[in-house]
Amino acid sequence: MKSNPAIQAAIDLTAGAAGNPRCNLTGETCGSAGLDMQQFPDLYRGTDCWLKDLLTVGFRGFYKGTSPALIANIANSVLFMCYGFCQQVVRKVVGLDKQAKLSDLQNAAAGSFASAFAALVLCPTELVKCRLQTMYEMETSGKIAKSQNTVWSVVKSILRKDGPLGFYHGLSSTLLREVPGYFFFFGGYEQSRSFFAAGRSKDELGPVPLMLSGGVGGICLWLAVYPVDCIKSRIQVLSMSGKQAGFVGTFISVVKNEGVTALYSGLKPTMIRAFPANGALFLAYEYSRKLMMSQLEAD
User: Fold this and answer.
1) Over the chain, what is the mean pLDDT?
2) For the segment 242-299, what is each residue's pLDDT rounded down to a tens digit?
């Protein structure tokens, strides 16, 4: 049965929404630690940042920015919806039938294209998350005045200082991370699924191969673009104190003043997070999508 494109988009959107809360909640403590180490490498030199967060901010420090991270679920749902659309675009470009299976490389290209659309939704939520997670350190260092440490206070501050466009600080850097990053993300995932399928249909894979494939996809993403993510986060956090800098200027400043290794600060907790979080993401996505597709075919 051929599904209506609008119905297919709704299925992809819903399946993406089902997967992403699991991704965020599975790895949020590591995500918070990684961001702290990116922004303050002198303060957080190792994974002892978990202990420092516990001592200074309390247990809630492990989940700083979880609310906007969950709101960013919308952006990731858009990613999976656009992924379905972009797969059709790739089929049309290469001259394939609408129901034809794409190669792993073609799926990677579709994921890369889809990420550009998702970045428009993701950038504002990541901006709020980055500022919320680093607000304590920025206040104690005197770079910003003390204020309420809530999502709403951050949103009001951005609107007051920069207006609606202020939510798009770091958009170019976000695109620079997302477009190549999701090529490796979906490419790594599909290649892993092909490996585990070993000639069978990838749709027949069980939960363990799916989780392992999702974990590999997450590892591929962060290994490919972690330095770009570091600069993107620096730009978004520094804009909180009124400093405006482009990607190239921030990159040069970090390398000159802190060395190349600063671009990889926080990589360890990010990698620890990437495997289980993205394994949970793809497991929930694939099973939710399969369930809805079977219901659609039954009707």
Assistant:
1) 80
2) 666 789 999 999 999 999 998 998 888 888 888 988 998 899 889 888 888 887 776 6
Which amino acid does the sequence have at 272?
I
Task: Flag whether pLDDT at 91 surpasses 80.
Answer: yes
- How far is Cα 278 from Cα 241, in angstroms, rounded to an integer? 33
Counted residue by residue, the chain has a size of 299
Q: Which residue has the higher pLDDT, 206 or 16?
A: 206
Burial class (CB in 10 A: 0-12, 13-18, 19+), 261: exposed
- pTM here? 0.82
Distances (CA, A) of 113 to 80, 87, 247: 11, 9, 21
Instruction: To the nearest 10°, report the CA torsion of 109, 110, 114, 115.
Output: -30
What letter does residue 295 receive in the DSSP assignment? H
The DSSP symbol for 262 reads G
Sign of the dihedral defined by the CA atoms of residues 154, 155, 159, 164, in that order:
positive
**Which sign, positive or negative, has the C-alpha torsion 35, 38, 42, 47?**
positive
- Which single residue is written with the structure tokens 């919320």? 132
**Widest pairwise Cα distance in the chain:** 62
User: What DSSP assignment string belongs to 127-189?
Assistant: HHHHHHHHHHHHHHTTSS-----SHHHHHHHHHHHH-GGGGGTTHHHHHHHHHHHHHHHHHHH
% of the chain with per-residue pLDDT over 70: 73
Amino acid at position 104, single letter: D
Asked whether the CA dihedral 247, 253, 254, 260 is positive or negative, the reply is: positive
Report the C-alpha gap between 81 and 8 in whole angstroms: 8
Q: Is the pLDDT of residue 85 over 80?
A: yes
Distance from C-alpha of 226 to C-alpha of 273, rounded to nearest angstrom = 13
